[in-house]
Amino acid sequence: MRKQSFIQGTLILLAAGIINRMLGFIPRIILPRVIGAEGVGLYQLGYPFFIVLVTIITGGIPLAIAKMVAEAEGEGRPEESRRILHTGLALSLGLGIFFTLLALFGASWVSNVILTDSRVYYTFVSMTPMIAIVAVSAIYRGYFQGRQNMIPSALSSVLESVIRIVFMLWFSWLLLPRGIAYAAAGAMLGVTVGEIVGMLALLWQYYFIVKKDKNAGLSPDANTAVTQDLSIFKRLIRISVPVTAGRLVGSFSYLLESIITARSLALAGIATAAATAQYGSLQGMVIPLLLLPGVLSSSLAVSLVPSLSEAAARHDLPTIHKRMHQALRLAMVTGAPFAAIMYIFAVPLCTLMYGNADTAPMLRMMAPFALFLYVQAPLQAALQAMERPGRALVNTLIGAVIKILLILGLASQPEYGIYGAIIAIIVNSILVTLLHGISVVKLISLSLRLADPLKTFAAMIIMAAGMSYIYTSVPIASAEWIQFLLAAGCGMALYLGICLLSGLISVHDLDRVPFIKRWR
Prior knowledge:
The longest helix is centred in the first third of the chain and has 53 residues, at 6-58. The protein is built from 18 helices and no strands. It is globular. It has helices at 6-58, 61-74, 78-114, 120-146, 151-175, 180-210, 222-267, 272-291, 295-313, 317-344, 346-354, 360-366, 370-385, 389-410, 418-444, 451-473, 480-502, 507-511. The chain is an all-alpha fold.
């Protein structure tokens, strides 16, 4: 099985991520038009519970498998990679089945006692089959990532996205005559179908790629195998538990955010249906749009774990520094222009995407701080790869506590409402990113290149000013959306030119992009 370099692996995941994000906006554009903001709110209210359960099952196990498999492959022990995969599968699948049954039997209690809208029950029940399915898929993705072959993960995720979109929209449309609650549940059923197809794609690739790998090595005898499995299980637990705990903080924060935001809006005098619609607009429309450019930082984070783990095993500090500087610079430089576009063109962008501009003020408020979110992912991945998940856990916990307290204090005030929750999310993203950055600098003695963020910020400001001028003062087209697209295109060209002139991007960087020049 062919192994890719760090940048190649990142670009493969980036390509898949871009396709997935673009495809993902098809249901985000169409679904609100089918089931409305209130239906999207019902869908979003049930989702945080799914995230928590999946985090418990797979939060740290796939990352631990990727790290352990990378080390085993780097030391020429492919037979141990198989044992790591099988041990991880047994653990994850067992947890998946247990929590699937727990969620199914607890759906009524969660919907009627914990949440403010009992109509979430149907969505909650519809999501339960996904828990065990995701448990299996995550393990295989971790295995392939550990072998630094990102193609199977990329292909399965794209196929899963295509199937999910078709069935989400189809099922929600079919069930809409029975009411919004059933339509939201239909959307969740469509996601389940997509996850099943994605899992089958991974299993197919494992059979045809890994099973034919002639470097598998000889299997140990039964006694040795039991000893090895026990050793693998112990190390798997030792690595995965702190990572899972750290991700659980984020997942529980997301869950508490959904519950407390809804209750705080009720305290502010907002009716349940209106509060559900506002929360659906924030979590189902604004934040996905804000996170769209973060596809590169997510790809960097996935590729960083095996790359840094391998370098750390060799005690190769220069390579670790090189990878971190590459990741941080790429995350900043690629995210900045999109943050500027979302700030300047919030109204036309939301109108084009969702058919109205009601969500534009939320997007404009959050856009300037999006860079913190884009940089956060590679920083957290570095802490996990360097076996410091406890530090990431503490940082995330501090940010989560402050976010929840701010939501309680601000969203319950009528003058703030949903914007109180937005302020809390912004403060959380800034704080956690800064804490992660401080931790990484101390851990690997990383020297910060302050010129890069300063140049990026300057280029972003100049780009924003140029786009705003072209959009308002240079009439290019009569249609507003064409004027918006042309102004944004001119802004991107201006930004690229500034980056080349300032040295943020070099000709050598462009040479390394596929279809421009072969990798050297």
